[in-house]
Amino acid sequence: MNLKKVYLHTVKVCERRLLDAQRIATYLSKNNYELVDHPKKADIIVVITCAFVNERTQIGLQTIKKLLRYNNAWLIVGGCLPAIDEKELKRLFDGETFSTKEITKIDNIFGDCKVSFDDVEDANTLWENSIYGEGLEKVENLLGRSNFLNKLYYVTEQKIRERMMPQQMLYYLSEFKNKFIMLESHGGCLGNCSYCAIKKAIGTLHSKPLEICVEEFKKGLNLGYKHFVILADDTGGYGRDIGESLPHLLDEITKIKGNYSITENRDEFVDSLKFISTVNFDFGFLHPFSCKHGTEAEGIEPKILQKEIEDRLVFSRRYLKKGVSYILWVQTSSYILEVGCILLVKSFA
Predict the structure, then answer these.
(1) Residue 168's pLDDT is what?
(2) Helix or strand or coil: residue 5?
(3) Range 178-254 has CATH code 3.30.750.210
């Protein structure tokens, strides 16, 4: 099968799946496939889905239904949906699929690739979908496709965004969007939470060797990056399957000299809140921290005093409430939450 043009698209997925998509893009490029920016141009369409809640499943199914209209292209569905809601997917689509934990199955699907998926390094930057959207498709259907029309649409959309989005948010997107390196320390999870379906798609814990994590960090530093995000499905569980731990990984990283910061004191905590407040999020949640029993974190000393945690929560709530429509303080004894964890949401509807 001599199919060479691929349209790769993600649907409301998490950052880990965006890393998967970027790795898939690299895999395709290494195997001489051309990535295109519109499904109409494609011989193959690969869509990466999410299904951690019912809403995301429905969005994924709706997107698949739309992409099936391009019946001249071979559609492949990947991500978490094929494993979590397999029956719902099969009612709509009976073609090739691969779940997150079976991502190397992509070698069998494409079949003619000289570079295997395992031979492609993990991505450290996030995949971004092309600017193609449903609105442009409708305009094209009505008026016919032209370079002038495409350019007019893009320029108009950008002007609308500039008018609707706060200047601070535009600054954030332009200054920080591409300045983070994502270090995916591991995939999968050891938990078995009754409410969670994600494990069906991601499988059990599989940690990346510590030396590879450190090498990825050094690579980011050498490229001039100053901001690093350690990313995983269960970040605190790193290394429990290979005799390592997250504290040891952080110790090894912080031994490396460079212009970056990982630790946070009280002044830096306030600086973080100042930055968050400039982005003008619509609402947010503040969570306190408690170590999970039986983990290495439970035995690490000294610990942040409970009073300090509570003071930070109260201070954060008051500080952020000035510029945020709604801040909810979630007071819970759950052991899975992190120190001063702040979930913030900005809507652009």
Answers:
(1) 41
(2) strand
(3) yes
Nearest to 19, CA basis, from 128, 179, 127: 127
The answer to whether 5 and 31 have CB atoms below 8 angstroms apart is no
Taking only the tens place, the pLDDT of each residue in 197-211 is 888 899 999 999 999
Closest CA to 107 of 118, 93, 121, 122: 118
Mean pLDDT of the chain: 77
CA distance 349 to 165: 10
H helix runs in the chain, sequence order: 15-30, 54-67, 81-84, 86-92, 106-110, 134-143, 147-164, 167-176, 199-202, 210-222, 246-254, 266-278, 296-299, 306-321
Q: Is the pLDDT of residue 319 over 80?
A: no
User: For 220-275, what is each residue's pLDDT tens digit?
Assistant: 889 888 878 888 888 888 999 999 998 899 889 988 988 775 544 555 567 667 76
Q: Is the model's pLDDT at 105 over the cut of 90?
A: yes
Report the alpha-carbon distance of residue 46 to residue 26 in Å, rounded: 14
Classify domain 5-119 by CATH architecture. Answer: 3-Layer(aba) Sandwich (3.40)
Domain ranges of the chain: 5-119, 134-174, 178-254, 266-345
